[in-house]
Amino acid sequence: MKKSLSISAIIFFTLFLWSCAPKTNNTTTTQPATNSPTMAPEQNGNNQNSSENMGNTTNMAQYFIYTANENDSTVSIVDMKSMKTIKNVSVGSKPHNVQVTPDGKYVYVVESGNNSVTAIDTSTYSVANTIKVGMNPSHVIFSSDSKTAYVAVSEMKEIDSGDMNGMKKNGNVYVIDLAKGDIVTKIKVGYMPHGLRMTPDNKYIYVANNDSNNVSVIDVSTNKVIKTIDVGKKPVQVAPTQDGKYVFVTLNEENSVAVIDATSMDVIKTIPVGKSPIQDFATSDNKYVYIADKGSNNVSVIDNSSMSVINYIPAEQGTHGVVISKDGKNVFVTNTDSNSISVIDTSSNKVIGTISVGKGPNGITIVE
């Protein structure tokens, strides 16, 4: 009887071990599909705008994106290799715009609430210097040798309603010697000067005067206005093309862009775009201009040959600042109300991802 029980136990134990062993077969397991390089993420108001919402961006060049975060008085620095914010630098009140110097050594922050511009050292990510200017500065650009800064200053306070507090005053473009930190001169322009950029030949500066509905043209050699061009309602920013032929001006209250012929310095066309356009930027090959339409949360793409919009690219909430990489492969757009950057692939004109930054990002620049 005992011998029979022992045999039964051995058989039972053998069957138990066999049932627990892993099974093998010739069936192939299907892997989850991955996004294609041009696939855009789903766009909706609930997107958390994190660096995980990225398409195939493994071939992104090594450079850094800086954003001026007006709602928390910081500048975010994004490493485009890791697609993440690596540092938030505390700066003065209400940083509105950022711009890298041509030599790449500094990024200057325009602090509209502090009436100043602050330099961030791009090698240490730390504040290097602060220069006081007039009331309510907005944008800054530089001479090609990185020695001189030009700052658009309103000289009057903007209140929440969008009207000016008190009597209107002409704004100025402050010319600053960066080595000394001294104001060399002030160039009187229109009411509420906002965006400004220099032409590729470094001869002229175009200034969008938001409250006088015109653009001032400054001769850099004399630091004097040589022409004032009526463009339309509420110009915000200007975008000269690299071939020197045109300057595109966003008209916030007309939902359009005015095109200035750079030779005659006259408006030759007005192009309808999305709602409430803010910043614009021309591609280095002179083919396209990208416009951030804050009121419709998208980016308009203008074909310069046809002078018409060929695409509207959905972004996140409150599209504002625009910059394009030197290789022309990517457009970066700040989303003020979503605290993020949208990354656009120019080969497909689709958003391939979003990156979280500080609160209320406005201006944006690239250090390459």
UniProtKB/TrEMBL annotation:
Gene3D superfamilies: YVTN repeat-like/Quinoprotein amine dehydrogenase (2.130.10.10). It comes from the Bacteria. The keyword Transit peptide does not apply. Residues 27-54 are annotated as: Disordered. Pfam families: YNCE (PF21783). Residues 64-365 form the YNCE-like beta-propeller domain. Residues 1-24 form the signal peptide. Keywords: Signal. NCBIfam families: beta_rpt_yvtn (TIGR02276). PANTHER family: DIHYDRO-HEME D1 DEHYDROGENASE, PROTEIN NIRF. This is YNCE-like beta-propeller domain-containing protein.
